[in-house]
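User: structure tokens for this one?
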Amino acid sequence: MEWFESLILGIIQGLTEFLPVSSSGHLELAKAIHGSGMDADESMMMTVLLHFATALSTVVIFYKDIKKIVAGLFQFTWNEEFQFSLKIIISMIPAAIAGVFFDDLIESFFNGQVLFVGCMLIVTGLILFLADKAKNTSKSVSYSHAIVIGISQAIAILPGISRSGATIATSVLLGVDRAKAARFSFLMVVPLIFGKIAKDLLSSDFSTTGIEFSSIAIGFLAAFITGLFACQLMIKLVKRSKLVYFSVYCVIIGIIGIFFSM
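Assistant:
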């Protein structure tokens, strides 16, 4: 992998991780259009590392929130922070199960499956369109909401299904306040990304064949820096803008991806 390709992939990941347009879908389309020579293992490795970079940017943006949540969790007091931590843990369960039992199947989708990605982007667009029609409320995420949102996050492991789009849209359709939905969506993915990195490192699943360290570093830094800006931007957009704009974008890119695959 050349450093320029890594830079482009990092920027795409950083910009699209927080916007509801599927970062993994855009990465797969970019790799297919550019003609990347990475095999499935290398492609999955790069995708996970770039997600790790944006997870770090989430930690930086929500540092105070995460600090309160961790502190509340270990106080074992039935306060707001402790309950929020439990909801985060509950929301992780579906994706964790999918990652453990369907890891090989999931990895197979990260190997130039452009047609599949295009179709899933259209699905994302439809989900966002439905969420745009939902009325905004002041409700917080409940325990039952956490389970349903967690299932959405598990499905969004597939490239083309936006994780933030699916989880935020699901929250909004359940009647959760949009700002609270965005906050929960961004925080719930952090433990999963760190867990995925730890699992792959311990099991030696990462393949670095044909990928230079400098390229990985460039992509990682590009994703981290652009992620810092995109995360803050998305928080503002969720509060003030309509999801329908992202819906139209996903459908257009999905159609382009389908035609490109043909």
